[in-house]
Amino acid sequence: MVLLGRGLLAVGRVAFRRPMIVRHLQYDAFVDRHIGPRRLEQQQMLDFIGYKDLDDLTGTNVPNMIKAEKALELPAPLDEYKMLKELEAIAAQNKIYRSYIGMGYYDTIVPAVISRNILQNIGWISQYTPYQAEISQGRLESLLNFQTMIAEMTGLPTTNASLLDEATASAEAVALAARTTKRNKIVVDSFCHPQNLDVIRTRSGPLGIDIEVSDSIEGYAFDDKVAAVVVQYPNTEGRIHQFDELIESAHKNKSLVIMVCDLLSLTILRSPGDLGADIAVGSAQRFGVPLGYGGPHAGFMAVAKHDAKNALGRNIPGRIIGVTKDANGNRALRLALQTREQHIRRDKATSNICTAQALLANMSAMYAVYHGPQRLTEIARGVHKSTAYLAYHLRNAGHEIVHKDYFDTLKIRLKDKAALEETKKRAEEMKMNFRYYEDGDIGVSLDETVKSEDLMDIIYTLNGATEKDVTKLREERWEVACPLIGNSPHSRSSLFLQHPVFNTHQSEQQLVRYMKRLENKDVSLVHSMIPLGSCTMKLNASAELIPITWPTLSSIHPFAPVEQAKGYSRIFGDLEKWLCEITGYDNFSLQPNSGANGEYAGLLAIRNYLIHKGEEQRNICLIPTSAHGTNPASAQMANMKVVVVDSDHHGNINYKDLAAKAEKYSNQLAAIMVTYPSTHGVFESSIRDVCDKVHEHGGQVYLDGANMNAQVGLCRPGDYGSDVSHLNLHKTFCIPHGGGGPGVGPIGVKKHLAPFLPGHSVVPVDGRKVGSVASAPYGSASILAITWAYIRMMGPVGLREASQVAILNANYMAKRLENDYRIVYKDEQGLVAHEFIMDCKPFKKHGIEVVDIAKRLMDYGFHSPTMSWPVHDCLMIEPTESEDKAEMDRLVEALLSIREEIRQVENGSLDKHLNPLKMAPHTLEKVTSDNWNMPYSRELAAFPKPWCTHKAWPTVGRVDDQYGDRNLVCTCPPIESYQ
Amino acid sequence: MVLLGRGLLAVGRVAFRRPMIVRHLQYDAFVDRHIGPRRLEQQQMLDFIGYKDLDDLTGTNVPNMIKAEKALELPAPLDEYKMLKELEAIAAQNKIYRSYIGMGYYDTIVPAVISRNILQNIGWISQYTPYQAEISQGRLESLLNFQTMIAEMTGLPTTNASLLDEATASAEAVALAARTTKRNKIVVDSFCHPQNLDVIRTRSGPLGIDIEVSDSIEGYAFDDKVAAVVVQYPNTEGRIHQFDELIESAHKNKSLVIMVCDLLSLTILRSPGDLGADIAVGSAQRFGVPLGYGGPHAGFMAVAKHDAKNALGRNIPGRIIGVTKDANGNRALRLALQTREQHIRRDKATSNICTAQALLANMSAMYAVYHGPQRLTEIARGVHKSTAYLAYHLRNAGHEIVHKDYFDTLKIRLKDKAALEETKKRAEEMKMNFRYYEDGDIGVSLDETVKSEDLMDIIYTLNGATEKDVTKLREERWEVACPLIGNSPHSRSSLFLQHPVFNTHQSEQQLVRYMKRLENKDVSLVHSMIPLGSCTMKLNASAELIPITWPTLSSIHPFAPVEQAKGYSRIFGDLEKWLCEITGYDNFSLQPNSGANGEYAGLLAIRNYLIHKGEEQRNICLIPTSAHGTNPASAQMANMKVVVVDSDHHGNINYKDLAAKAEKYSNQLAAIMVTYPSTHGVFESSIRDVCDKVHEHGGQVYLDGANMNAQVGLCRPGDYGSDVSHLNLHKTFCIPHGGGGPGVGPIGVKKHLAPFLPGHSVVPVDGRKVGSVASAPYGSASILAITWAYIRMMGPVGLREASQVAILNANYMAKRLENDYRIVYKDEQGLVAHEFIMDCKPFKKHGIEVVDIAKRLMDYGFHSPTMSWPVHDCLMIEPTESEDKAEMDRLVEALLSIREEIRQVENGSLDKHLNPLKMAPHTLEKVTSDNWNMPYSRELAAFPKPWCTHKAWPTVGRVDDQYGDRNLVCTCPPIESYQ
Ligand SMILES: Cc1ncc(COP(=O)(O)O)c(C=O)c1O
Ligand SMILES: Cc1ncc(COP(=O)(O)O)c(C=O)c1O
Ligand SMILES: O=C([O-])O
């Protein structure tokens, strides 16, 4: 690039005083699209805060001691057009075979209307977790649909709004069982999918849970040490067991029963609830979510309610959507029972889970809304009938069908074992993937995409020859006896999905309107900035999102032969290399599918490294008070004891306290977990010393990379002393938050920790087979393309500039606000990093709480900043680099105007109770009501600023959290209530 | 399919009493997604209107005489998944070469953010033409941006919101020139693109305009017969002429100058306005709209204002968006000067154009909003520099560059003419398409997608060999002299796109929010039914829309060698065959790119057939009073004289009057144009007699197929006597209306008319080379895939059922409403067809006009039915088959509630003037205002029904049409007004 000075083209009267970059045959600089403020605006803001240019600012901001010494060595940026062409060519290296591997992943038909209007619709994917319920009723309703669906399919009443995947859900169930039974032995059926067994193994060890794997689960003899038994339903070989006795004998011993189940099969199989199981987990993937080479998909969990105390229910991990009422007495939804969660309970939490799989849960829920109970059953019966038909023809050809009770999966023993290689060759020719067991058997799992032609091809492949008469097949197929149709002991008789929502949106017109109505209830990035500190709600660009729905990326089974996934290998390879360069680490694991899961994997690497070194006694994890709740929760899961470190009045780690504690626990010190720049929004100058001190005492440094958005191109954790970090690709690297997930939390490590990164038993990762923390070897593989695209389009200079503008934006806003709100923490130079904390405590004495400000912001059309975290009674603002000056100015104006309203409460011009802050948010219903009885005006309530006319309205009044938690309802109201 | 009776699956308590269709391995029946009412609801509605089943209803409704005798022979339906696979394979037969053909079509980079959020967003594409301005301010603003862009790029102040394409725009300009100068000779530069010349020829003949084609336009000697001269700028060989003298001498002779121009070049070339031209036309395609094998793209026209009367401006064809104010005195936009248009002026209209290219105009306008003046200029300079660089290297290699003044197009005379074949072979190998002139020269046109690598490939192809050093090229390219950069007499100096809208949405975040804000101002099908009679606002399914953005369909130049378009050939072939089967015609032409253009092409076929038969004197076209305005307007353009035929009190054609007039004009009778079912919404039983009578007197029958939605599978125009019809694929066949286009109006004809269907001189159609009515041989080719997908998924049974349910829905609504609103026309059995007319005249005596009802419906959240057409003071409702019962019931409820409000005005409980009807629509601003001073309540104004809480709000109060027409403003306000 050649810089030709400012204002090359004298096109207009409007002065564009920005350095003109002449792009040689380059279409467009993506960085200019990604970054909000134009150069002129950047200059205005720099002038305002008193810095010459971006380098001047960040040169001051980032401590000298840690400054990156050289520019990032990353490929030069491509514009979006070229990037898409390049990525398309890479993706085309993936070979898309028909997948009959099964093992928890099935091809599915994503209804076009859902793909287009949810997955490809920025209005559905760019929200954050619904912390602000009043402007999130749309996806809260959809997530409640998800919960209702899971509760009804499993027959178990209490459930949550998704977990990370089936394997982590299984591990969460194991932990839940151990916790509630206070026992520590778990029996796992050896016929669980291997990845489930693996993650259960990974996660149980540190928790001190003993795993016994049983090869003959049906007759298992329980003793009073067994917390629970875990079975796969149907099992990994496709077999459906008769579990009644097992469950009875478990319960006799006060052991719990955990069933890992297949959602589609539950339409025709007796549900876990019907069978009497206590916990059901699984994946909702085959309900309309693409394979995506492993993810993202929504995991689920549902539990029985054994007693009035609902012990299992109240201990369930993850987010629960619950029904409550709002200030006007209307029904409203919001996150329930948050006191279980890490952000409140920290190391006492039920789980470390934070970001889950909301978007995918919504897709699956909509799939059920679209199909309804009848069509879902029809789909399942279709799949089952095809399987029976296949079994019939294979048996006729002399093969053995190993299990007689199956749903969609056959284990096939070839008539002639020697024919295996030939069969494999034919499968390859037919572009089909089967499961090949070690004993020489072949596994075939069918799904809703299987057409008559496919069945013919499978029969041909396995039998060697067949007349290919598809019409005949169409007729015959209905004649074959099916194990689950007719008089089967396995048949489901209980009803499900009877609520109107699953029975009224089944024409496309109806579904589109339903989805739109929900979408329009929610504030997302399409409306306004979402200044959630620590969440980094930056642009999710269309060009980054387009590839994820390409079949070349979305239609591969995670256990397909790796030779078929060359495109993915290239993407992973690039990403690992680029992320290493960006962070200064030596190796990366892309497996963790959330930030918290990355933390866990990172701490585990530390722990196993220490054990490997013979220092198993090292189990203390130092964690500053300001840490995110996931840090202590993860530490606890990794069998570390949390010792809290204080902060000083700058918001920095209290170095003295740290040194003292490092000293005190010198022999036991395992690690420190520290966020940088700190969650207080400052670049602590002592970071290097902190790292050194911990190392000095034999500990490892875990640097929480959630705030990497302030560092890319400016400094590298790997350079200044950290041993391991997770990155939140769904923050710094542009993966949309999806209203509460998906996320990706890859971890980077220094060389010594590399051997301890997660592996995978089915598809080894860099040769590693153990220690997996997720179902799939590369976690949420498909959305890694988003990050790839972002880095490829930004290039080294653009990425650095993004960090700089993120810092500029935060400092600009802080300075504009500081006269009216105290900025709680700044560094020695008076600067903040990429986010900052505003003190709202002083207003308490006038009766105004931070929540009043948060809700009042909705009336101005804004989503609140992060509330009371990491500092109570404060708001934390993170504008990100993608917000332009005008948008930030509007938010500033709103906050200043609210400050003025607070003053009016102080001085009595507004009532102490009946004021627009306390009454906020104001719904349309309220402000148009004929009975307006507030002492302030409707216009003040509704349109405190002229630009509020564009706002997205809250659709309910302030929600009542207590009421809902006292009366937990986490599914759609029973059908009677509609009649 | 096997019908297994009702309620096969006892899944639920909710009784699904619909015939269960077992689909053999078929995933899903699209027909169930397309049709709104579930079977149970259909039965309820049938019971209500007193019919046993659908066949009973339509068997009564459709006159026996015309009933189809057999089921349609169309392929059995595919579900959306299979359909997409099949269409993907067909589309893959198209070969995507790099296109350097030029000739008015250029590859372009559709910004991903625009593609995703407009073209792929049902919220932007499923609106109708903005007849109801108060709920259309979003796209009205975007179309105003389009007009501003066109006005400023061309330097001519009055413009419109798109025409069909460049060639029809050229022909419209010719007609406009002839009309305003009252002269009838037009001189056309022979170096116009051939397709422009062709359509000018086609359209001028019938209007009595003489076309003189001149090979040396620069020195043309004008005389006082010349209405205008038409030049292409730059011309088809890429040459830029010096037009100052030509324009001066034209003006001396009071002739007008029409410039057909390239939008991108105008960023650096002197604009038509700067040069003194009177009319500029062209295509906005290369502003971010895919090639799409020819369309759809927005044509444009802008005209000079020579005098206060603005003669050209007030005579411009097509829709003009104009600025006005609303009832509250706020700025509002709406369609301006509608009195020029066919729906008011009929055969005196300025054009027959109705549906235009609103969606594509919006895309192009957003492209300009996204890039702004500076980036647009940069793009143009980049293209130009590449062209100059290419010229330099070709000259160096000894080739001749025929014209020295060019923008992006070179005519290349090979050093060695004999090398042509070899060059062509290399081009083929490199997958590049050039233009091959008849004289052996080669044409190369560059565009914004051309990368360094492409330039290297072009140079290699033409020069035979070159070192492929891309980096070197990147450097060198900036050294080469460019004809338009530096001191060129052609250089533009005037400013353009200075308005804030083109200078403030240039980060993606900003643009997304801007587009969303506009989207959310408009009512589209995602909100509620749009019951516009005659407009058929049915479902536009996602699966139908997905293919149009596949590169295999969107990235082909319409003049690419036909061997490269095998996929398209297959789609066209299927469609022609299927449409013939559906209509009973023998041949189809897919070229007309709107219904009106189809009418024109059909009438032209009749006219040329008659001339061919030696009956040129036949020039009378009988048209019923109830006909759509396009009918008489098209007839006039086809040189026919309109004679109006009366209707009887049933709304049928007055057969006696018809017979008398056919008799009277027996010798001159050319045709009748009749809509069936009639625009009055009835199946006239006399239709066969009408056809026979006309034939008896030697006339041809043109059956306007806009109402084909009531006929598909039930009766076929070709069977009951019609000779030619257009279909509105954007009505019956699911192409979305795009807020005012695109449309496709293919025509079907009986065999005798087939030779007179449109041809194309560049790409002959079935051997036909003349008579083209559109720029591209297959018109808006890319969106034909939508119709293909629809028919493929519905199958013969589904299509028929759609017609039946459309009729059921209309009859259900009519019966529910008839006690409160007189249904103006019914057939002898008391039935309506697929739409019906409600009389609102009786309310006039109480001061309530039909417009008051229309506007009041907005308060209920509904788009008004068609207002005062075809019968004054009435509303015409067409529900379509895609609307479910609940939605129709809501609209009924709204209309009954409004009827009650009218009664209250009658009986005085509501004020005569200050009532919710007269004051409608009520904006949010109004109902939340502190100064509510209406004698009725806010709640009555805002939420007359509980379900109104979901409504999309009107964003302005009632617009003032007169004010805007008196003070015509059709561009964004001047920049000063923002400061
Ligand atoms: C500082 C910090 N660490 C860790 C996390 C956890 O990341 P995730 O939500 O992806 O599990 C967050 C998430 O918000 C965070 O802000
Ligand atoms: C009966 C009838 N004929 C013709 C047309 C013209 O079609 P188009 O708008 O596509 O030009 C219409 C359009 O509304 C119509 O309703
Ligand atoms: O989601 C967070 O807790 O940041």
TrEMBL record, chains A, B:
Entries under Gene3D superfamilies matching the protein: Aspartate Aminotransferase, domain 1 (3.90.1150.10), Type I PLP-dependent aspartate aminotransferase-like (Major domain) (3.40.640.10)
Domain Glycine dehydrogenase C-terminal: 802-922
Enzyme Commission number(s): 1.4.4.2
Modified residues (N6-(pyridoxal phosphate)lysine): K731
Cellular compartment(s): Mitochondrion
Domain Glycine cleavage system P-protein N-terminal: 32-462, 502-761
Catalytic activity: N(6)-[(R)-lipoyl]-L-lysyl-[glycine-cleavage complex H protein] + glycine + H(+) = N(6)-[(R)-S(8)-aminomethyldihydrolipoyl]-L-lysyl-[glycine-cleavage complex H protein] + CO2
GO cellular component, one term: glycine cleavage complex
Cofactor: pyridoxal 5'-phosphate
Subunit structure: The glycine cleavage system is composed of four proteins: P, T, L and H.
Function: The glycine cleavage system catalyzes the degradation of glycine.
PANTHER family cross-referenced by the UniProt entry: GLYCINE DEHYDROGENASE (DECARBOXYLATING), MITOCHONDRIAL, GLYCINE DEHYDROGENASE, DECARBOXYLATING
Record-given protein name: Glycine cleavage system P protein
Gene, per the UniProt record: gldc-1
